[in-house]
Amino acid sequence: MAMKDEEPKKKLINEKIVGRKLTFGRVLQSLLVALCCGLLFGGAAAFAFVRISRMQKAPQATAAMQETDTPAEPSSAALTLPQTTESESVIAESETSEEGTGTEHPDKEDETVLPEESETLETASTADMNAADSNADETELSEDPENPSLPEDDDGIRESTASADETETKENGEAEDTEPEDTSETSGTKIPDTADVIIAMQKRVFEITKPFVVTVNAITTGQTWFESPAESTQPYAGIILDMTEQEILILTTGRPTESEMLRITFQDGTTEDAYVKQLSVRDDLAVLAVPYGEDADVEWLSTIREITMSDSYAAEVGDPVIAIGAPLGVVGSCAFGSIGYVSETEPALDMSQRVLYADLRINPEKGSFIVNRDGELLGIAGEQSKKGSFDADLARIVTVGSVKNIIDRLEAGEKEAYIGLEGFAVSDEMLSNNIPYGMYITNVYTDSPAYNAGIKRGDIVTVVNDAKISDAFSYEEAVRALRPDETVSIAVRRGSADGEYRDISFLLTAGER
User: What gap in Å lies between CA 466 and CA 468, rounded to an integer?
Assistant: First the structure.
């Protein structure tokens, strides 16, 4: 009896000392728990590895799409499909093995090695796919004769072409990020295209105006050291203004008129003698005439073209202008630029002129004529005004509309009269300060009829030959009606120190302009 009581006590004591008794069921249960933990860890690791591999390959595909346009080979597209399928199958097999191990095969202890086998399979399949991609890219590069070998990236994989990646994307059904179209080439070609248009326009204008330009040869005779006769020729540029039934009229600078003989050379090389039709010393302009009779070459005369006058008052800032004649000091040269400033009413000798200032390199001494984009005569290059504040490198262009009356008189062989005053209309502000109504004189030309008569700066012109003067335009019209050597009556108002104005009348003889 005592022995029976001691056996349960020993069993109880044994259990308390060594723990619970190990049985086959408890051992199997522990193995299953360890197996499940291993499968879960292995599956998570495999999933993370696949994601990292995809992230590393995405920039390579993007870079390849940007750098190359080589058509894709079918083998490269076929190799991309197993990447996703095989990697996902590893995860699926791991999950299936985990579920099957926990429910269907509780008695198999050797399944504890499955996580290691899964990781090994994943690593092997990834290495095989990388090697396949590398071989496929090398095959594409070798089969395409126009695409040279591309450098390898850090992972040793050659960059595939853009079209090959597009084919892979279409076959695999993967989403593709569409990059915005690069318009840098299009925007970059706009400036050259615009420049080409401008250059073409300049060349066209120069070609269509060439027939209008002639060379005025100013010939002076003299003697050499040995007292033998010799000729000295100075070339100037001229432009054909008109062609009458008896002569060809040419506009040029006034300097050639100082020579003993004038010869005109036309564009076809024909040379003809000329004479001075009329001259304006004050404007440095002259009209030459080339006479021809009934026996003249009719075919040659048919090639003569006169230039068209433009509406110079329509010229604006920014308009392109072309200088022809001798802007660079050589007959036949040209210069291109644009209008930078327009002086609408710039005071000049007995008138107001519309003057253009352009970024043109011009030497007005040899004769420079300004045309617009249509090849029409826009103006004549003049000397830079010493009174102005404009940059000396700018060309000063007197519009043809401002001197058209003078040119018409010269073509007709008539002289223009002048008095020698510059001025502007008395403003409302000046009227409020008790300054009389009329044209305020700002300049009196030295040795002019007005200067010699005693008219002074600050006088206010009120009457010219019974014509009332209110501004520079009415004064210009009154002077234009005069003829050289005509007696002119001019009434002015002159101020005194006490602020009072008194009337003064002058009689003078108009001079030749």
Answer: 6
Enter the pTM of the model: 0.61
395 phi/psi in degrees, rounded to 5: -85, 135
Instruction: Decide if 181 is inside a domain.
Output: no
Q: What is the largest CA-CA distance in the chain?
A: 175
Q: Are residues 286 and 397 in the same domain?
A: no
Encoding tokens for residue 198?
């401008």
Same domain flag for 95 and 221: no
Residue 458 Ramachandran class (φ > 0 left, ψ -120 to 50 alpha, else beta): left
- Whose CA is closest to 314, among 265, 256, 270, 374? 374
Closest CA to 274 of 358, 347, 354, 216: 216
* Tokens 């993967």 found at: 174
**Both tokens assigned to 350:** 């007995």
Domain count, the chain: 4
DSSP 474: H
Check which CATH number belongs to the domain holding 458 and give it.
2.30.42.10
Please indicate, yes or no, whether residues 262 and 382 belong to a single structural domain of this protein.
no
What CA–CA distance (Å, rounded) separates 349 from 419? 8
CA distances for 313 relative to 191, 241, 310, 377, 400, angstroms: 30, 20, 9, 12, 9
Q: Which residues of 490-513 are buried (b: 16+ CB within 10 A; e: fewer)?
A: bbbbeeeeeeeeeeeebebebbeb
Question: What is d(CA 36, CA 30) in angstroms, rounded to the nearest whole number?
Answer: 10
Rounded distance between C-alpha atoms, residue 289 and residue 253, angstroms: 14
Digit-by-digit pLDDT tens for the chain (513 residues) are: 455 555 655 555 555 545 555 677 777 877 888 888 888 878 787 777 777 777 665 555 555 555 544 444 444 433 344 444 444 443 444 444 444 444 444 344 444 444 444 444 444 444 444 444 444 444 444 444 444 444 444 444 444 444 445 444 444 444 444 444 544 444 445 555 777 888 888 889 889 999 999 999 999 988 777 777 788 999 999 999 999 989 999 999 999 998 999 999 999 999 999 999 999 999 999 999 999 988 888 889 988 999 999 998 899 999 999 999 999 999 999 999 999 999 998 999 999 999 999 998 888 899 999 999 999 999 999 887 666 666 777 899 999 999 999 999 999 999 999 999 999 999 888 888 888 999 999 999 999 999 999 999 999 999 999 999 998 999 999 999 999 999 999 999 999 888 889 999 999 999 999
- How far out from the chain centre does Cα 341 lie? 20
